[in-house]
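Predict structure. Chain length: 158.
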Amino acid sequence: MPPTNIKRNMATQHNMQPNPQVPGHLVNLSFNIPFASNLSGPDPDSVIYASPGAYARWTHPQPHNPDSPPPNHELPVHARNVDNLRSLCKVITEASNAQIHATVTSARPKPVPGMQRGPLNTLVTNVCLSGDSDLVYKMRAKILNETPITLVGTARRT
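Prediction complete.
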């Protein structure tokens, strides 16, 4: 087959495949929300002053066994971030009149033999959006813009 015919056949095949960037095509998009859920709160005995509500957000509500403290992602501030994300996705799904479906999955990662580089004690949160490609990409931007993903911990030494 001459090279010109090959190019023509490839162009014809390419045009027949749906382009996810073109509005009107259904897509499934899954992406990670990089919560900093491994940030620990302060030592409760060391807190001298805190802004209103900060102490309750950054400390575990019940006393725990010092030998096995609860994971950092169970702190109220981190749990609230995941709950807010779930609520946002529910609102997106309900407000779109079934044009887009948004779900959130959060879980601790499972160890993979030979791939683990330390303890897996953080939470991985993923969002899955399904629907019209144009709406999916707009909702992805909305979710990332409205989600606090830049929490930073600072350590002070005295």
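Summary: Residues 14 and 40 are 50 Å apart (CA to CA).
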